[in-house]
Amino acid sequence: MTLNEELRDALNAQIGMEFQAFYSYLSMSSYFEANAWDGFAQWMAMQSGEEREHAMKFYTYLLDRGATIVLPAIEAPAYTFDSPLAVFKASLAQEQKVTAAINRLYKIAHDCDDYATVSFLKWFVDEQVEEEKTVSDMIEKIKRANANPEAMMLLDRLAGERQQGDEA
């Protein structure tokens, strides 16, 4: 089954968006590493890996559908931040951007009556709810810590204990 051209192009663009998120999370991880926030660094490294997996799911799906892969350019990510809170706020903004793109893909697929792609995208729609909640929860916890060094150290340790699929 041939993909609609608009849908194919949007799916290719999504690969780039997922790799951009991979790259951004890797940069966030390096920021935390450089500032001795080992747990937050591990959390962001795990997020980076998840985003790469997401990109590869789109890549494989396009190949399975017989579409040509066109990898878009990605930008250099931010690498300096003012605080752990600023990093997580940037993470949430990124997740919200990805959510909007996934929702747009879903609409295009539905409008094209491409129910195979609608089915494929359902997992991503659900995943984005979890992604935004996980980051939002961490933001709230950091705000509650209110720069208290002991509370921040505890959050850092807890972030480092997070396993793939866990919420913060």
Mean pLDDT: 95
The top-level CATH class is Mainly Alpha
Q: Tally the helices: what do you get? A: 5
| Whole-number tally of structural domains | 1
Poorly predicted runs of 5 or more residues:
none
Helix content: over 70%
Largest sheet: none
| Silhouette | elongated
- Beta percentage is under 5%
Distance between the termini: 40 Å
DSSP, total strands: 0
What's the SSE pattern?
A: HHHHH
Fourth CATH level, the homologous superfamily = Ferritin, core subunit, four-helix bundle
CATH A-level architecture: Up-down Bundle
For the CA atoms, what is the radius of gyration? 17 Å
Give me the secondary-structure category: mainly alpha
CATH topology call: Ferritin
Characterization of the model:
It is a single chain. The protein is elongated. By secondary structure, the protein is mainly alpha-helical. The protein has helices at 5-34, 38-64, 84-111, 115-145, 149-161. It has one domain (5-70, 77-161): Ferritin (Up-down Bundle), CATH 1.20.1260. The relative contact order is 0.17. The longest helix is centred in the last third of the chain and has 31 residues, at 115-145.
Describe the structure concisely for a colleague.
The protein is mainly α.
What's the arrangement of secondary structure elements?
Elements: H1 5-34, H2 38-64, H3 84-111, H4 115-145, H5 149-161
Helix pairs in contact: 1-2, 1-3, 2-5, 3-4
Descriptive key words:
168 residues; Ferritin; elongated
